[in-house]
Amino acid sequence: AEGMTVKDLADKLEAKVKDVMRVILEQGMRMTINSTLDADTATMLARQFGAEVEVRSFEEEIVEFEEGVSRPEDRETRAPVVTVMGHVDHGKTTLLDSLRTTRVAEREAGGITQHIGAYAVELNDRKIVFLDTPGHAAFTTMRARGAKVTDVVVLVVAADDGVMPQTREAIDHAKAAKVPIIVAINKIDKPDSNPERVMRELSEIGLLAESWGGDTVMVPVSAKAKQNLDQLLEMILLVTEIGDLKANAARNASGTVLEGKLDRGRGPVATVLVQDGTLHVGDTVLVGTIVGKVRALQDDRGRSVREVGPSTPVEVLGLGGVPTPGDTFQAVEDVAKARQIAMFREEQAKAKSLGARGGRMTLETLQKH
Ligand code: GDP
Ligand code: MG
């Protein structure tokens, strides 16, 4: 992709240059049709046009990404990763809490406190991962950075309130990201709840319930009274089964940063989602422009673990800095190479911000005349 311009990309995507430019402007980037695209931007743009591109860049050539590359026979089913979205007060937090306490805590006396912004639940020995963090803003930020972490969106709509602005917004996000939607019609315990009204309102904006002949799964639930939650989990498994989610636990870990913070006692702490491979204590990881050695791993229940496989949220200690949500991470064999890539990325980022500033100045100059 070195040297690929906006126009080149449009040609490759068989899209109109002006359509690609529109997306670029919508994302707030300043470019012309002759601007050169970096790998992240090209990948992000291609996704918007429904294409998965394999962008080969300098950094990919020097990291042995292909090491332990997945042979089809090595790939195993992985757990689906879910983001809960919906209008404020429709019950997202209550739903996440109820799922956590019913499906996780029942086996552990004393319950569990939340450790990281993501956790796994189990239904009939099958795992489902819920992300707490990506609300609408985080979801958009991650997507803009080219990160795809969610396999399905659970859209919470309160049955006593119906479709509201953030309901529509969530649908738009999910559609743009090409992530399937399951609707949880919530608060059915309330006397004034009207699930049919919710179904009707959703049908008017393009989501027709399966029970009405459409293809959107809708499950009436009460997050508060913990009604029908197992049915919701079953539907998540069913819908994602079609997606045939696979990963290869034998390869080096890779995934996405969900959160980063600086902890007084522990130093930089990152919550990451391992999406492929297995991450071990002692691995060297490259996260954005940061290189570090994994000093400790903590799972969603705050337990120290030695290693974690695909579709696992985990807290990573030992990084040399605080990473940004949406950053990708890779476990790498070669520390020197990892450092080289980190430096390369830093230079690229610098060049980018300089370029952006240059663009703005030109525009300002233009506007003055
Ligand atoms: P969020 O803004 O989407 O995270 O919504 P919350 O989970 O904070 O819920 C908003 C309010 O609705 C709280 O007072 C909850 O107790 C209440 N609530 C959530 N789910 C239910 C439900 O299933 N039934 C009833 N009756 N109330 C609910
Ligand atoms: Mg909430």
UniProtKB/TrEMBL annotation:
Residues 77-246 form the Tr-type G domain. GTP binds at residues 86-93, 132-136, 186-189. Residues 80-228 are annotated as: G-domain. It is found in: Cytoplasm. Belongs to the TRAFAC class translation factor GTPase superfamily. Classic translation factor GTPase family. IF-2 subfamily. One of the essential components for the initiation of protein synthesis. Protects formylmethionyl-tRNA from spontaneous hydrolysis and promotes its binding to the 30S ribosomal subunits. Also involved in the hydrolysis of GTP during the formation of the 70S ribosomal complex. This is Translation initiation factor IF-2. It comes from Luteitalea pratensis. The gene is infB. The chain holds residues 394 to 762 of 975 of the full protein.
